[in-house]
Amino acid sequence: MTSKTRLVKIYDTTLRDGIQAEDINFSVMDKIKIAQRMDEMGFHYIEGGWPGSNPKDMQFFKEIQRVDLKNSKIVAFGRTTRAGVPPENDKNIQALIHSQTPTVAIVGKSWDLHVKDALKISLNENLKIIHDSLKFLKSEVQEVFYDAEHFFDGYKANPEYSLMTLQSALDTGVDCIILCDTNGGSMPFEIQEIIEEVRKSIKIPLGIHTHNDSEMAVANAIIAVKSGVEQIQGTINGYGERCGNANLCSVIPNLKLKLNIDCISNEQMKRLREISRFVNELANLRPNKHQPYVGDSAFAHKGGIHVSAVKRNPDTYEHIKPELIGNKQRILVSDLSGKSNIISKAAEFNIDLDDSNPVTIDILKNMKELENQGYQFEGAEASFEILMKKAMKNKKKYFDLIGFRVIDQKEKEDSPPQSEATIMVKVKGKVEHTAAVGNGPVNALDNALRKALEKFYPELKEMELIDYKVRVLSTGEGTEARVRVLIESGDKKDKWGTVGVSHNIIEASWQALVDSIDYKLLKDHNDS
After folding, report:
1. What is the pairing mode between strands 231-234 and 300-301?
2. Is residue 338 scored above 60 in pLDDT?
3. Of 220-229, 363-372, 487-496, which has the strongest mean pLDDT?
4. CA–CA distances in Å: residue 156 to residues 119, 195, 396, 468, 494
5. Alpha carbon distances (Å) from 343 to 336, 353, 367
6. Is the pLDDT of residue 478 over 80?
7. Domains of the chain listed by start with CATH number
8. Closest by alpha carbon to 268, among 73, 492, 70, 31?
């Protein structure tokens, strides 16, 4: 076991390397907010961007100076000087200095292929560029890191030259040399062997920067630490170009819980899921529910045997306690479920059931019959809670449907259709008859139902539909196929899922909409 006293420093590059991922773009304010969260997490370094490349990053470095960070150093990133240009005259190098960060990092070529084919200069000239760039920066900036780009590919192609590039950096007094698996194609055993060779001649701290093109980024980062590396570079949720970077949401708990190596505090690690979700939210991307450690499914149990075991001892099917990284155990209900699932799920909703209660058997039987029809409760736990309360005969009914009608009308070939819904419901002894238009028939129906109910239940105004999914369940039936509608709704406090199934997509949507509204009223009124 590695000693507890060893410290590995976390270097986050979400704000630079992470935003090179497809579909990700952060505003300057987004980057400021994320940097503040990373500082609270105790990350040692936050790479803010490339100040010489675009106005947004230049603005970030200006704005971040006004932010009082307690734990993290902001890093400005750039490249070595251009061939034939002294570093003091290179605009990119000058932009790094003008960013006024306590730490800068520059990337240089360590693979002879890139020197000859990309830079089109001699191998010796590349060594001089690395040396001169770092030496100048060391005279101007408090702390300087050197990123040896494509180092592992370079070492495998020409070990002698790749080590010469590191020596050129070492001779300048640089503070840390980061070995980069830029193409993401190296295997852990290669990483380990090469780092062991590097450490024979390079005695200053080493870092590791891995990409995930062969699904090895986290494994390569961890084996690098086992080989003596003192700094890990990565991103939140593994965001990055192509297949992404090493995922710090996996790296950090692996370091602390598997290798017993310090990096951030235990209290800070409890916020790991929180920062994962926060960055997802600002990136406008749905969280990966199957993501290790922080995903919704990371500690979710579905099979009846599994559920029975984890309720007795969570260690039977959980490799860590989920609370350590801010997650929680979840018990799923499906056609694989047994009585243990039903009882555990009921306990989550403060419903007292046990093996001997006939209601437990009824709920299990009803749930399996519904799933056979196409219902799915794994993503619709609100519908399942309502199902349980109905089985126990204690589900309050907040309104009764008298009838609804939905009309779609298209007047011209090139004009969009118009949707209108008319609805009649009985609420608290009164009949409400109203109509509304919408962007499609389901939206029109939702608007009409809310319009009828909000005067009686004003809390529905804060509820919103977050996601809407339709899946065709039966093949070979064409447009007559049965469909399942999953709706995710939310308010200021919670999010919840509901489900509906029918041959008619409007009816399936209606079922899910009604459950969603029922659940909102159920939890707000705390009715049993």
Report:
1. unpaired
2. no
3. 220-229
4. 20, 12, 69, 49, 52
5. 14, 6, 13
6. no
7. 75-263 (3.20.20.70), 300-391 (no CATH), 399-456 (3.30.160)
8. 70
